[in-house]
Amino acid sequence: MRTVRLSIKDSIYHNVIFLLESLKEKGVEIEEIKPTSVAMSKKESLKHFLNSSDVKPFEDIGDPIEWQHSIRNE
Predict the structure, then answer these.
(1) What span, in angstroms and rounded, lies between the C-alpha atoms of 10 and 31?
(2) CA separation for the pair 14, 10 (Å, rounded)
(3) Pick from 27, 30, 5: which is nearest to 17 by CA?
(4) Domain count, the chain
(5) Residue among 52, 54, 72 at smallest CA distance from 64
(6) In this structure, how many other beta carbons lie within 10 angstroms of the beta carbon of residue 56?
(7) Does the pLDDT value for residue 69 go beyond 70?
């Protein structure tokens, strides 16, 4: 599979998306990257990044209190 990045004018955006969605059955995957606002705060930016990321930083921690004790003991 190959990846193609398109920059599309707003005036034809819906037409292009309609065309791409009609090709979904033939193996086309659509991932829309929405432009981020410059005014987005650091906190909002971090939330957006973590929500859109596959990384789960604390997934392997079974017991958080025991984990904290082990970190402090190191």
Answers:
(1) 17
(2) 8
(3) 30
(4) 1
(5) 72
(6) 8
(7) yes
Whole-angstrom Cα distance, residue 71 to residue 42?
Answer: 28
SS3 content of the chain, % helix, strand, coil (to 5): 50, 0, 50
pLDDT tens figures, 21-43: 888 878 888 888 776 656 667 88
Contact 36, 51 (CB under 8 A): no
**Considering the domain boundaries, does residue 4 fall inside one?**
no
- Look at residue 40 and tell me if it is in a domain: yes
The label of the residue with tokens 């998306």 reads 17
Per the structure block, which two tokens stand in for 40?
């987005």
CA 27 to CA 35: how far, in whole Å?
A: 25
